[in-house]
Amino acid sequence: APKTVQLFSIRGDLQKEQFITNINFSGITFQYTGIGADKKESGVIYMEGAHNCSIEECTFKNIGETAIHFGNGSIGNSIVGNNFSDMGSGAIIIEGGEKSSIKSYQSGLNRITDNTIESGGWINVGFNGGFKGMGISVNNAYRNIISYNLIHDFPYSGIVVGGNEASYNMIEYNHIYDIGKSLLSDMGGIYSWDRTDGLEIRGNKIHDIKCAVYGGNCIYLDDGVTHALIEKNLCFNSNTDLMNIKGAENIIRYNILAFGDQGCIKRGSVTNWGGSVVANFERNIMVSKGASFYR
Q1: pTM of the predicted model, to two decimals?
Q2: What is the DSSP string of 93-141?
């Protein structure tokens, strides 16, 4: 069995504000790695304090842990046009420091686009082991773009964005399906959590989301999500509700929601986190086979 877990660990010195810059991986295949990386620093490729680096048109397959992990202090990096398959954990983690940390620890302005991500999260599932079991996870990082990715066959969520520093991220034009596998609960095709502000979820196609018991939604905004814009998404076929909305002052408009087994949209919280409303819901198309449109 493979014993090597991490192939590259590349780090700057964040205390001294000494960063690594302009490192590029292109057209390389990474495969047959083992299990057991440190929970906070997993990744076949782990980079910390990385600025303007790129991983493009590479292949990651048959790996025991996360494929790519950008840790604290990661600014302006690109993960574009890669293929990921058969992973013990997820494909991509972007992670930054909390607001209380010094500026050099904060992460943001990264781009994750045009990747194919299939079949992962089978060993480190869900939040077990630190945000490792999703297709793409952005934790405490700001103004990242996640677009035009194909994500399918995960027992937990497709894309997860959250944390106190997770502000003004954009998730657009992704195709996400076959998530949950009826194995886990409290998850979604796109799931956002904690005090996330200004998230935009636009133009995604999300379908066939199946939880074990509860919370298997195409789009799930958990408590603390504020000022999110959810528009022009196509969501269909979940075994609970197509959308589960909590938080405050969110806008949900111009979406097509069809065939949630329990409903089209659910208000999942009785609180509104200091706002006047949980969400404004307008100009959406809803289709049901007898389940509630709203509950």
Answers
A1: 0.95
A2: EEE---TTS-GGG-EE--EEES-EEES--SSS-BTTTTS-BSSEEEESE
What's the pLDDT score for residue 129?
46
Q: Which of 35, 33, 85, 87 is nearest to 59 (CA)?
A: 85
Tokens representing 268 are 């999942």
Cβ contact 98:165 at 8 Å: yes
CA 251 to chain centre: 20
Question: What is the C-alpha to C-alpha distance for residues 288 and 144, in angstroms, rounded to an integer?
Answer: 34
Asked whether the beta carbons of 152 and 179 are under 8 A apart, the reply is yes
CA gap 277, 197 in Å, rounded: 15
State the 10-residue block means of pLDDT for the chain, 295 residues long: 85 95 98 78 92 98 94 97 96 83 90 97 67 87 97 96 92 97 92 92 98 94 94 98 94 98 86 78 95 90
- Please spell the DSSP secondary structure of 237-251, one letter per residue: EESSEEEEE-SBSEE
Token duo for residue 237: 């076929």
pLDDT tens sequence across 141-177? 999 999 999 999 999 999 999 988 899 999 999 999 9
Sign of CA dihedral 150, 220, 55, 178: negative
Q: Which tokens in the block code for residue 50?
A: 């990385």
Strand partners, 141: 107
d(CA 274, CA 259) in angstroms, rounded, equals 32
Structure tokens at 147: 């677009």
Within a 13 Å sphere around the CA of 63, how many CA atoms are in the beta-carbon half?
Answer: 32
Strand ranges (DSSP E) for 32-126? Answer: 45-48, 50-51, 54-56, 59-63, 68-70, 78-80, 83-87, 92-95, 107-108, 111-113, 116-118
| 99, two tokens | 């607001």
Continuous segment of H or E residues that includes residue 282: strand 279-282
